[in-house]
Specification:
By secondary structure, the protein is α+β, with helices and mostly antiparallel strands. It is built from seven helices and four strands. A four-stranded antiparallel sheet has the order 1-2-3-4. The radius of gyration is 47 Å and the shape is flat. The N and C termini lie far apart (110 Å).
């Protein structure tokens, strides 16, 4: 029998009983089977009866196709699409910034004669060397006149001593790491060449004396960008006596010796923007001749891997062979 409520139960129970009686007659299966069917129908029709928990079956949804990203159109395709949409694309210029206060190199560099122009003119090589020197001197005289048009007080004798002071001051600023003053003494091309590789190093440099007076050997006045934009490049020959010592970050000597003076022969190029009224003569670079002797090797400090020690085990250096470091050119 179904539970019957007090008020509306009688009205609800009558149709339920009639339905169950109508279902039991045609089945004809027996009391037990009919009772199970009735219980199922009773659970479906009555909201107060609890049904058994449903079984969850995973059903695969619709397969989603992978849409690859759109490839970037070329500049021509983008321009056509923009024109079709009524847009105006701005033209892009591939430009590289330049510095007009100095040039990017040495124009017509001076070729130092082999043996510092000490070959005899009686030989064929000496006569050829003399002819090349005469050609260079003629071009230098023409360029010297052009320099005097912009700087009337320029003379080779006074400029040689002035250039030597610039050379000494620039190297002293490099030793003291005075970057602000160094920019005023060297050009933008020479600055990275001087400071490259000097980080975490200690430099000891000293100018002792001049073995020979500085001499102007080459003068050129090249143009850049436009015809009136004139630069002056003067090459000087320095034969001096210096001391140089470079220490690494561990305080170990890499190159040179502070107590051993050395004779140095250099060809240094100085440059000035002649069109600029406030331009200054600055060190622009050095010319290394092909016949110059090789530089001294640099001794580098490297870590030598030692044996693997166990805990509480001491290292005995007497039993280990330490290889000597190789010289690096």
């Amino acid at each position: 029998q179904l539970p019957v409520s007090r008020r509306g139960g009688e009205k609800m129970a009558a149709p339920m009983c009639r339905l169950l009686a109508a279902v039991e007659k045609p089945l004809g299966r027996g009391v037990g089977a009919n009772r199970q069917v009735c219980q199922g129908l009773e659970a479906l029709l009555s909201p107060f009866k609890l049904c058994a928990s449903p079984t969850v079956i995973t059903v695969r949804t619709k397969k989603r196709h992978y849409v690859p990203p759109r490839k970037q159109d070329s500049s021509a395709d983008q321009e056509q699409l923009a024109r079709a949409a009524g847009l105006v694309m701005r033209q892009q210029y591939i430009e590289r910034p330049i510095n007009i206060s100095s040039t990017a190199g040495i124009f017509d560099p001076y070729v130092p004669p082999e043996g510092d122009s000490r070959m005899s003119t009686l030989t064929k090589a000496g006569l050829k060397q003399r002819m090349e020197r005469a050609k260079q001197s003629v071009a230098s005289q023409l360029a010297l006149r052009k320099v005097k048009e912009y700087d009337s007080d320029f003379t080779t004798k006074d400029f040689a001593s002035k250039a030597q002071d610039i050379y000494i001051s620039a190297h002293e600023c490099l030793v003291n790491f005075d970057k602000v003053k160094l920019h005023k003494l060297v050009t933008e091309r020479c600055y990275p060449d001087m400071v490259r590789g000097n980080r975490y190093k200690t430099i000891r440099w000293k100018f002792l004396q001049s073995l020979e007076a500085p001499k102007v050997v080459h003068v050129r006045c090249p143009d850049m960008v436009s015809k009136g934009n004139v630069y002056g490049q003067v090459t000087l020959r320095f034969h001096t006596q210096q001391t140089l010592a470079i220490y690494d970050r561990f305080g170990r000597l890499m190159l040179g010796n502070e107590d051993r003076p050395k004779d140095v022969l250099e060809y240094v190029v100085f440059e000035r923007h002649l069109l600029n009224v406030y331009g200054l003569w600055r060190m622009h670079g050095k010319i290394v001749p092909a016949w110059a002797p090789p530089k001294d090797p640099i001794v580098k400090t490297v870590m030598i891997p030692g044996p693997k020690l166990q805990p509480l085990e001491e290292f005995e250096a007497k039993d280990m062979e330490i290889p000597k470091p190789e010289h690096v050119q």
